[in-house]
Design goal:
Elements: H1 2-12, H2 24-58, H3 61-75, H4 78-109, E1 113-116, H5 123-131, E2 135-136, E3 148-151, H6 160-168, E4 173-175, H7 177-185, H8 210-213, E5 233-236, H9 244-253, E6 257-258, E7 270-272, H10 275-283, E8 294-296, H11 298-306
Parallel strand pairs: 1-2, 1-3, 3-4, 5-6, 5-7, 7-8
Helix pairs in contact: 6-9
């Protein structure tokens, strides 16, 4: 190298700018630097390739799928994302409105309370009533606890429940078909199209509107919309066809008072008697229920309520 340097200096002379002409040593150094940088880049690329290969080896299929989903999400247009969010919001709002509507419908229908007369509802009917969000009540809570009395129109039976509800005058009596038709619709039908009709007694009003309309009671009962037995006192005798509890329910629903024993009887007390009670009175030398003397049979109670007319002559025991 020293010899090469001396020869180069001898060729150019002392006055020439030696820095403008590359020497052999300078060229070698530059070439060495380029090779070093190239090797460095190559080594870095190999390291990255090794890292990627090692990462792929350790990745599970689930991790690879997740990376693929993330990559696809980055490629999804923003308009698609916005549309999906809008649709999701609309569905959520629609669901909330539907729930609110069902809640309102449920609160309206839960006020319906059914009492049955003349038949006992089976499991299928009870399930339909439950699905319609109504409830079943019995006489333990009183006849006034029901909103509708359900019975059969094919054969009308004037049970104590029927008599008590009709005596109240503000509860409709409907045919059982109302429940089946309402279940098919999924909501309660208007009950006024299912009001009971008795072919044998077409003048009887089962609509439950008498009390609201202020129908006038005739006879000695209080005039106006008052109940038919209002201000009257009764005593049930041993052989009267209606039991004590049922008789009490009906008489009180009609506005009357049922005495618990004969010690409270007065001259104006009406005796509710069966045929055997009537025979006993006729054969006895003394009146066992004195001072009361008026004996009425079961039809007196029935038709006084059904016709809302107090007739104390027609059904009296002679």
């Amino acid at each position: 190298l020293e010899e090469d340097g001396e020869r180069a200096n001898g060729m150019h002379g002392e006055g020439d700018d030696a820095s403008l002409v590359p020497t052999t040593s300078t060229s070698a150094a530059a070439a060495g630097g380029k090779r070093a940088r190239k090797a460095e880049v190559t080594n870095e690329a190999k390291k990255q390739a090794l890292v990627k290969e090692e990462d792929d080896t350790r990745s599970t299929p689930a991790m690879k799928r997740q990376r693929g989903v993330k990559g696809a999400a980055l490629q999804t247009p923003i308009t698609s994302i916005v549309k999906k969010r809008c649709r999701s919001s609309s569905v959520s709002m629609a669901g909330d409105e539907h729930k609110e509507a069902l809640s309102t419908l449920g609160s309206q229908q839960s006020s319906i309370a059914l009492m049955f007369s003349g038949f006992v509802p089976d499991k299928e009917m009870k399930k339909k009533i439950e699905n319609l969000q109504a409830k079943i009540v019995n006489t333990d809570s009183g006849p006034e606890s029901c909103t509708h009395l359900v019975t059969e129109s094919k054969r009308v039976k004037y049970t104590s429940k029927m008599m008590a509800v009709l005596a109240l005058g503000d509860i409709p009596v409907v045919d059982r078909k109302w429940i089946a038709d309402s279940f098919k619709k999924g909501a309660w039908e208007a009950s006024d199209t299912y009001i009971l009709k008795d072919k044998l007694n077409p003048d009887i009003d089962f609509s439950g509107t008498r009390a609201k309309g202020g129908a006038r009671a005739t006879g000695k009962a209080k005039a106006g919309g008052g109940k038919i037995f209002e201000s009257l006192k009764f005593l049930r005798l041993e052989n009267f066809e209606m039991g004590q509890d049922d008789c009490k329910m009906v008489i009180e629903a009609a506005g009357g008072q049922l005495c618990e024993d004969k010690k409270t009887v007065t001259a104006s007390t009406i005796l509710l008697a069966g045929e055997e009670d009537h025979k006993l009175l006729k054969t006895s030398k003394t009146n066992p229920w004195a001072p009361a003397t008026e004996l009425q049979n079961k039809d007196f109670v029935k038709f006084s309520i059904l016709r809302h007319k107090l007739d104390r002559k027609t059904y009296k025991w002679k």
